[in-house]
Design a protein that fits this description.
mainly alpha; Rna Polymerase Sigma Factor, Chain: A; Arc Repressor Mutant, subunit A; 10 helices; 68% helix; globular
Length: 204
């Protein structure tokens, strides 16, 4: 495969699952162009996911690059066995964030400084439970009321852009469990944020 053929992947035209699988096999054989195609395909998702969890764009950039470096170093160890490559890659990202905070003496992920700027267009998929005028501090406080697993599911689904199936693989739960976690998390956030929305609208 030529370098041009593999790297002609823009972030608006994503790879199909079959294409991802094909590039993974080629990357495992050492083809740098295949690795670059995977990098282009997954970069935005991984960066947004890490930004969502760290609330720091500079840290997210560094950690995202580190995730892909680790992907390059360990991709030969990846064995599908019914698990999507994306779930494997997001586990690397999740573990890298945990390592980052452990080095800083923190045992858990910090709450988000911002949710809307990282979710971007995906905010509409949260049933419009929060509007753009809502203060980020209030969103952070609401997120603190979720369990770690609920936050992780929302991170993967709406920041990482993973499907229910991919999210289930990433958190080692079945799909029904992920659906239930997402539903309960969104319901709780909606209940916590709606009063603040009404209050902010009255002040507007």
């Amino acid at each position: 495969m030529s370098r041009e053929g593999a790297t002609n992947v823009n972030r608006e035209q994503k790879l199909t699952k079959d294409q991802v699988d094909r590039y993974v096999v080629l990357a495992q054989k050492g083809e740098s162009s295949a690795f670059e195609a995977l990098y282009d395909h997954f970069y935005d998702q991984i960066f947004r996911y890490i930004t969502f969890k760290t609330s720091d764009y500079l840290i997210a950039e560094d950690l995202t690059e580190d995730v892909f470096l680790r992907m390059l170093e360990s991709i030969r160890k990846f064995k599908p066995q019914g698990h999507p490559f994306s779930a494997w890659l997001f586990r690397i990202a999740h573990n890298r964030v945990i390592d980052h905070y452990r080095k800083r003496g923190r045992d858990r992920n910090v709450p988000l400084d911002t949710i809307l700027t990282t979710v971007g267009e995906s905010e509409s998929t949260l049933d419009n439970y929060v509007e753009t005028k809502l203060a980020m501090r209030e969103v952070n406080q609401a997120m603190e009321n979720l369990t770690d697993l609920q936050r992780e599911v929302l991170n993967l689904r709406f920041a990482g852009g993973l499907s229910i199936k991919e999210t289930a693989e990433a958190v080692n739960r079945n799909e029904n469990s992920v659906k239930a976690l997402q539903h309960s998390a969104v319901k709780k956030l909606r209940g916590l944020l709606q009063p603040n929305q009404l209050f902010s609208e009255q002040l507007a």
